[in-house]
């Protein structure tokens, strides 16, 4: 299957400008061209773009993504380094999740606190609107 740049952008959730930028900085190989010379993205291209999008969502810097993209062209001989990059990023993501879990715990504590305040106030005949933040 072959997709125009507009269709690849729609399917990947990336903008056309981002697709061209990723090509320019060598995160993606230049896609094949159709008979008219227009970019023709494959399903494999879309799969790689989906993976790159996930790496960006994890907070991986573009520089590290470029290293990873470059290494994949070396095949199995670069598997160890590619794995190390992903292991490092996984640690970073796990640390962020732990930090966010702490934030979530604090929010839950405060919400529970305000539930208790509301029950007390409502139990005495006051209204919720009268409670200050």
UniProtKB/TrEMBL annotation:
InterPro entries: DNA-bd_dom_put_sf, MerR-type_HTH_dom, MerR_fam. Keywords: DNA-binding. GO terms for molecular function: DNA binding. Residues 1-71 form the HTH merR-type domain. It comes from the Bacteria. CDD domains: HTH_YyaN (cd01109). PANTHER family: HTH-TYPE TRANSCRIPTIONAL REGULATOR ADHR, REDOX-CYCLING DRUG-SENSING TRANSCRIPTIONAL ACTIVATOR SOXR. This is DNA-binding transcriptional MerR regulator.
């Amino acid at each position: 299957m072959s997709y125009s740049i507009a269709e690849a952008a729609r399917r990947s959730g990336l903008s056309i400008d981002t697709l061209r930028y990723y090509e320019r900085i060598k995160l993606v190989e230049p896609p094949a061209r159709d008979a008219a010379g227009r970019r023709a993205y494959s399903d494999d291209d879309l799969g790689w773009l989906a993976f790159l999008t996930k790496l960006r969502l994890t907070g991986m810097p573009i520089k590290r993504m470029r290293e990873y993209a470059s290494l994949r062209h070396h095949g199995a001989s670069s598997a160890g380094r590619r794995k190390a990059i992903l292991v490092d990023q996984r640690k970073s993501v796990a640390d962020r999740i732990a930090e966010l879990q702490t934030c979530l715990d604090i929010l839950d504590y405060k919400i529970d606190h305000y539930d208790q305040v509301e029950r007390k106030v409502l139990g005495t005949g006051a209204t919720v609107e009268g409670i200050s933040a």
